[in-house]
């Protein structure tokens, strides 16, 4: 469940929207501030103070954050836990996909287990964990879906020319080789196009129970997927950084001058002041 959003202020504070009017409160602590990254998913909210020197921390209410240890590369939050892999330039663990397994009952140290090979990246969501390797989203890339058994992944697709992918409620979406959006059909390596080809450099996507949303710089528009191929509703102007919750969309404009909430027909400004551009996440 995700009914609100968190952002990072320009000074590095982690802020959580209270859900009404323009009220926000500060939830960060010394372990994560000044924050450089926040990520979220059904499992919870995670933040990091430094890309290389600090591990991720799990938000435990109030201003409390628990050190998660583990890999210090890219991380993604799934339905039941977090997933991460080491930085390939300064690996702190053998390369591969790691799953957070909680804390040791005896000494409280964080526990991680390796569940996959040296993927180039992975994204988690309600549907599960999707990894990709080889080619950096080029034609040699292969996509895999984690089965839940360590080191057992199903091959679900081949490389694309796209640079965007998001895991949804019951499938995964990506930008395809001709820059059209595609969704995985659920079997084998079959994908279905759900949009016309888009301009390659201007598309960002996000998913929440409200739906799949993409923002297109080329058309200065943001669109909501209506569930059928090529059926999209324009819901506002292009805003490159946004998060989709259970019931709406929150977005940051290009000038980073605040946060706006989609109210059905209009957008309402709910935070004034500059924020870090690419960190707005949906959370509960």
Topology, pairings included?
Blueprint: E1 4-9, E2 14-17, E3 24-26, E4 37-41, E5 44-48, E6 56-59, E7 65-69, E8 75-77, E9 82-84, E10 97-103, E11 110-116, E12 121-125, E13 128-133, E14 142-146, E15 153-158, E16 165-167, E17 172-175, E18 181-184, E19 191-193, E20 203-208, E21 211-216, E22 221-225, E23 232-236, E24 241-244, E25 249-252, E26 258-262, E27 267-272, E28 275-283
Antiparallel strand pairs: 1-2, 1-28, 2-3, 4-5, 5-6, 6-7, 8-9, 9-10, 10-11, 12-13, 13-14, 14-15, 16-17, 17-18, 18-19, 20-21, 21-22, 22-23, 24-25, 25-26, 26-27
Question: Can you put this structure into words, describing what you see?
Answer:
This protein has no helices and 28 strands. With 284 residues, it is mainly β. The protein has a domain at 31-159. The strands form 7 sheets. A 4-stranded antiparallel β-sheet has the order 3-2-1-28, with no helix packed on it. A 4-stranded antiparallel β-sheet has the order 4-5-6-7, with no helix packed on it. A hairpin with a 5-residue loop joins strand 25 (249-252) and strand 26 (258-262). It is globular.
């Amino acid at each position: 469940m995700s009914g609100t959003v968190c952002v990072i202020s320009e000074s590095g504070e982690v802020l959580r929207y209270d859900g009404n009017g323009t009220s926000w409160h500060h939830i960060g602590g010394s372990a994560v501030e000044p924050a450089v990254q926040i990520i979220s998913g059904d499992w919870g909210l995670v933040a990091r103070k430094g890309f290389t020197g600090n591990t991720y921390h799990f938000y435990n209410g109030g201003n409390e954050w628990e050190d998660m240890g583990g890999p210090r590369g890219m991380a993604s939050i799934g339905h039941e836990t977090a997933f991460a892999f080491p930085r390939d330039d300064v690996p702190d663990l053998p390369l591969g996909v790691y799953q957070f397994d909680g804390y040791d009952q005896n000494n409280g140290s964080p526990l991680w287990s390796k569940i996959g090979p040296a993927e180039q990246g992975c994204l988690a969501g309600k549907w599960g964990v999707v990894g990709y390797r080889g080619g950096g989203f080029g034609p040699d890339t292969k996509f895999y879906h984690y089965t839940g058994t360590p080191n057992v992944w199903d091959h679900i697709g081949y490389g694309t020319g796209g640079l965007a992918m998001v895991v949804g409620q019951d499938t995964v979406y990506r930008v395809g080789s001709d820059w059209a959006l595609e969704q995985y059909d659920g079997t084998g390596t079959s994908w279905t196009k759900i949009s016309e080809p888009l301009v390659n450099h201007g598309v960002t996507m996000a998913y929440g129970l409200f739906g799949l949303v993409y923002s297109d710089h080329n058309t200065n528009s943001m669109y909501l997927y209506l569930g059928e191929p090529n059926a999209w509703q324009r819901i506002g102007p292009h805003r490159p950084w946004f998060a989709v919750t259970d019931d709406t969309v929150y977005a940051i404009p290009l000038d980073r001058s605040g946060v706006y909430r989609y109210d059905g027909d209009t957008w309402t400004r709910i935070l004034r002041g500059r924020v870090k551009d690419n960190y707005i996440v949906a959370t509960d």
